[in-house]
């Protein structure tokens, strides 16, 4: 596979006039593509993908090119899934490691932790209907045990999460007592 193909295809999906939070534009990505600085072009295109409503195809192209270059592709795959299923962001406060049920180790940033969540649904028997969601920690390599920070959630079954609204509080469980509590800050589902 020619790496330029998916990168050029992704670049073609960026609307005119889009600039990232740091000020890079499509022209910057194209310049690096022309000079075959593919990793830099990939980084710029990834950054630009946050500045417009990039679709699943965009993120899948970037994931494919990352795989070919042996670059991390987890973020591109995560964003592709969010375009299909929706975005749930929250501020997560993990309970201290001295508390029963709390995590004793940090949550890695890359979406591998899959705890259960009490999102307010109740089973017919009256107990909480806990749901699974992966966690992506934003702004760092991990969220320390007892720490607090912004996270993105990827539910295993996103349809059960559509009732959530910003300000809702949901509880994270890994054992019987909760491991943390999160306040929902953003919810966006595709139509």
Distance between the termini: 34 Å
Please write the string of helix (H) and strand (E) elements: HHHHHEEEEEEEE
- Strands, count: 8
Strand arrangement within the widest β-sheet reads: 1-6-4-3-7-8
CATH topology of the largest domain: Elongation Factor Tu (Ef-tu), domain 3
* Gyration radius, in Å: 19 Å
Tell me about the largest β-sheet.
6 strands, antiparallel, barrel
CATH superfamily of the largest domain: Translation factors
Number of domains: 2
Structural class: alpha+beta
Low-confidence stretches: none
The pLDDT mean sits at 94
Shape: elongated
- CATH hierarchy: architecture of the largest domain: Beta Barrel
Helix content: 25-40%
| Fraction of residues in β-strands | 15-25%
Q: What's the tally of helices?
A: 5
CATH class identity of the largest domain:
Mainly Beta
What are the defining features of this structure?
8 strands; 5 helices; six-stranded antiparallel β-barrel; Elongation Factor Tu (Ef-tu), domain 3; about 190 residues; 2 domains; alpha+beta; two-stranded antiparallel sheet
Describe this structure in words.
The protein is built from 5 helices and 8 strands. The model has no long low-confidence stretch (mean pLDDT 94). With 191 residues, the chain is of the alpha+beta class. Strand 7 and strand 8 form a beta hairpin. The protein has 2 domains: 4-84; 86-188, Translation factors (Elongation Factor Tu (Ef-tu), domain 3, Beta Barrel). The strands form 2 sheets. Strands 1-6-4-3-7-8 form a 6-stranded antiparallel beta barrel. The protein has a two-stranded antiparallel ribbon with strand order 2-5. The chain is 28% helix and 24% strand. The longest helix has 13 residues, at 56-68.
